[in-house]
């Protein structure tokens, strides 16, 4: 997830095949073909994978055989043990033994110094990390590009918050951080937020992430800010 400070939280437009989505009952889901979902014992909902073909829908599986609480979710968000081969989607969608949320548990990330990374971004990063201890694994601010460039990172005004176990690993954790940033937009001097292939600007008005503007599919979990 990314926060642009003028603070920024990042995401790109809605999920590509085998990428995350929010499915039935608000559960973590995966965008797969309806035939793949049904063969895996899952259920689909319409409208949660709008960038994909009509037969690609958000698939969830509420229960799976990994203890009494077995459920399918992204491995980075599981607070217990996981088993592969029991859930729809890629190998990172696994059968989790715990019903607990399981987000985070990371050591405090290093906060970039003020310099190439501007003070507004640094101060925003400190506030987000303080509000969600253990939830942010790593922080990025600048990129190797000349300011103004094509990204706010080029000028040190944007922050990317890595909220999963590793790069390229999906998580649903970012939604809570993204909506918190929206609700605290004034203190963060917020310009926009991106998370989960959706973008929000202060002029959009306060609303749930599911109602944020959709963004294009950028091709992978990281670029789509999952």
TrEMBL record:
Keyword Signal among record annotations: yes
ARB-07466-like C-terminal domain location: 115-226
Signal peptide range in chain numbering: 1-15
Pfam families linked to this entry: VldE
Top-level taxon of origin: Eukaryota
Keywords: Signal
Protein name per the record: ARB-07466-like C-terminal domain-containing protein
């Amino acid at each position: 997830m990314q926060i642009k400070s003028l603070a920024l939280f990042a995401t790109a437009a809605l999920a590509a095949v085998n990428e995350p989505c929010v499915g039935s009952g608000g559960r973590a889901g995966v965008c797969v073909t309806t035939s793949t979902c049904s063969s895996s014992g899952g259920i689909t909902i319409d409208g949660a994978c709008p960038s994909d073909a009509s037969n690609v829908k958000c698939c969830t599986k509420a229960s799976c055989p990994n203890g009494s609480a077995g459920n399918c979710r992204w491995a980075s968000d599981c607070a217990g043990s996981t088993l592969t081969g029991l859930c729809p989607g890629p190998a990172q969608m696994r059968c989790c033994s715990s019903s607990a949320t399981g987000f985070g548990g990371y050591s405090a990330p290093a906060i970039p110094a003020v310099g190439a990374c501007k003070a507004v971004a640094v101060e925003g990063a400190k506030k987000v990390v303080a509000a969600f201890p253990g939830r942010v694994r790593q922080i990025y601010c600048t990129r190797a590009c000349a300011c103004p460039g094509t990204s706010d990172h080029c000028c040190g005004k944007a922050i990317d918050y890595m909220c999963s176990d590793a790069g390229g690993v999906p998580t649903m954790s970012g939604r809570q951080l993204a909506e918190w940033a929206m609700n605290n937009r004034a203190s963060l001097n917020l310009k926009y937020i991106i998370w989960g292939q959706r973008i929000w600007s202060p002029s959009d008005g306060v609303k749930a992430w599911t109602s944020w503007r959709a963004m294009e599919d950028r091709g992978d979990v990281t670029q789509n800010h999952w």
